[in-house]
Amino acid sequence: EVQLVESGGGLVKPGGSLRLSCAASGFTFSSYSMNWVRQAPGKGLEWVSSISSSSSYIYYADSVKGRFTISRDNAKNSLYLQMNSLRAEDTAVYYCAREDSGSYCMDVWGQGTTVTVSS
Amino acid sequence: EIVLTQSPATLSLSPGERATLSCRASQSVSSYLAWYQQKPGQAPRLLIYDASNRATGIPARFSGSGSGTDFTLTISSLEPEDFAVYYCQQRSNWPEFTFGPGTKVDIK
Question: Taking CA atoms, which of A82, B5, B13, B32 is between 20 and 30 Å from B68?
């Protein structure tokens, strides 16, 4: 079964840091670009970051550029998001999602992990 | 920046009725448009990609159409499990993914 499982969310103070992880199984992880997408409480979906299969290409939304770092370990079938200088507006459910090769969409999603930034 | 607009914001229908959801792009996205369904407390699920192709396992009552700037998601006959929020998404302005604000389909 194709599966993505996120972990690492929690409560953190403004200015703090958190590292999210996403464990992939059931497919050849090293063949796919991966993404992080977030959803603030009661709001819509916001793309956060993308990383290509070999980590050669990395992209960020302007809202997180310079504060968040995406990375992956293909040997461990894992995707990561290092979040620094967190702000209240970063509070959201964070999803990892597999990018469909060639169709510019995300065809597999994890169940999400919740990040709350509050003092 | 390409902006996606979805209408209506809320669609109130009964089971068995036809649902027609609209997504409009501020400039052409060719056919690179996807639709997702999201139920409360769940992750989004891909329904349609490349404007009109159903994703794996998606029932035939879901169909997508359109190209350029105007797109439609149609649910031919609503089942109880179809009441949810639907988002459109594009990636024509590489490398960003952009989502629309969503249309909520609720029970009338």
Answer: B13
Contacts of A76 (CB under 8 A, 6+ apart): none
Do A106 and B46 count as a contact with CB atoms less than 8 A apart? yes
- Residue that is written with structure tokens 């996205």 in the block: B29
Q: Tens digit of pLDDT for each residue in A58-68?
A: 999 999 999 99
Q: Tell me which DSSP letter residue B69 carries.
A: T
Integer angstrom CA distances of residue A55 from A33, A99, B64:
8, 14, 33
Burial label, A75 (beta-carbon count in 10 A; 0-12, 13-18, 19+): exposed
User: Between B1 and A72, whose confidence is greater?
Assistant: A72
CA distance A52 to A66: 19
Mutate to test the interface with A, among B46, B54, B58 (most CBs of A within 10 A): B46
B102/A104 CB distance under 8 A: no
Cα separation values, B17 from B11, B52, B102, B108, Å: 11, 21, 20, 10
Do A88 and A14 form a contact (C-beta atoms < 8 A)?
yes
Q: Please, are residues B34 and B78 in contact by the beta-carbon 8 Å criterion?
A: no
Q: Residue B85's beta-bridge partner residues?
A: B38, B104
Contacts A–B by Cβ distance under 8 A: 66
Q: What is the pLDDT of residues A15-30, one digit of tens each?
A: 999 999 999 999 999 9
- Asked if residue B8 has a cis previous peptide bond (ω within 30° of 0), the answer is yes
The neighbour count for residue A17, using CB atoms within 10 Å, is 12
